[in-house]
Design brief:
The protein is of the alpha+beta class. A hairpin with a 2-residue loop joins β6 and β7. The chain has an eight-stranded antiparallel β-barrel with strand order 2-7-6-4-3-9-10-12, surrounded by five helices. A two-stranded antiparallel sheet has the order 5-8. It is globular, with a radius of gyration of 18 Å.
């Protein structure tokens, strides 16, 4: 079993929706001409984002840098407590195309005692390159977020949609965490249309059938701005 997963480059078109409820968005997907159907049970996604001391990843996003990267730990289910199946993900963006490289991590505990030792122990696997371990440990945790995701697939299987709602954000650091500064956005829904680059022309028609404006959206950027401003 491979402990490293690398995905091919694909397009991810994002729509930040505030004028429709999550239920309304689900109905619009249901009646879309591409005939989307739900393909997976809803689940809660949790992430810890890491950045450099100078917040390079954040500022690359703000300034619209075409080639940028995000480093995060991801897991599903409960946000706090014993995290049994986390992964380390490098989310890579090259212009409008993106992919990610994932590494399986050891379990760790997320609570008010969270510190750098938890991350070091999670990274302690032979399958993770030493250069990756050193790089992650040189970074600092900057944001903890959580949201509920639904998954859809078009009838021709060319296009995937995810819907994220109840986006919740927390400050996080290597010490002094209380996780009491919770910020939840109950009004926003993030829809992502995902597809291989060969379907770019067809994707324009798929996207135009939605009554939403295509937007630049980053949960990392939005989360930092909510918990720090």
């Amino acid at each position: 079993m491979s402990l490293i997963q690398s995905e091919p480059l694909r397009y991810e078109r994002k729509f930040l929706i505030t004028d429709y409820s999550q239920a309304d968005v689900a109905q619009l997907i249901k009646f879309h001409p591409a005939c989307f159907t739900e393909i997976f049970h809803k689940r809660t996604i949790n992430n810890i984002y890491f950045d450099t001391l100078g917040m390079t990843n954040y500022f690359d996003n703000v300034e619209g840098e075409k080639n940028r990267i995000k480093v995060r730990m991801r897991w599903y289910g409960n946000l706090f407590g014993n995290i049994q199946s986390p992964t380390l993900e490098y989310k890579i963006k090259k212009g409008l195309l993106g992919n990610k490289v994932s590494y399986v991590l050891n379990p760790f505990v997320l609570d008010t005692d969270f510190d750098k030792n938890q991350i070091s122990q999670a990274l302690d696997r032979d399958s993770i390159p030493l250069s990756v371990k050193e790089e992650v440990l040189s970074l600092k945790p900057t944001l903890l977020n959580s949201y509920i995701r639904s998954y859809y697939l078009s009838a021709d299987k060319k296009f995937r949609i995810t819907i994220d709602h109840q986006l919740t954000y927390y400050k996080i650091a290597y010490s002094g965490n209380t996780f009491l500064n919770k910020k939840t956005d109950f009004n926003a829904t993030v829809l992502e249309l995902k597809y291989d680059s060969v379907y770019e022309e067809e994707a324009k028609e798929v996207g135009s059938a939605f009554p939403f404006m295509l937007t630049k959206n980053s949960k990392y950027l939005q989360g930092l701005e909510r918990v720090f401003l």
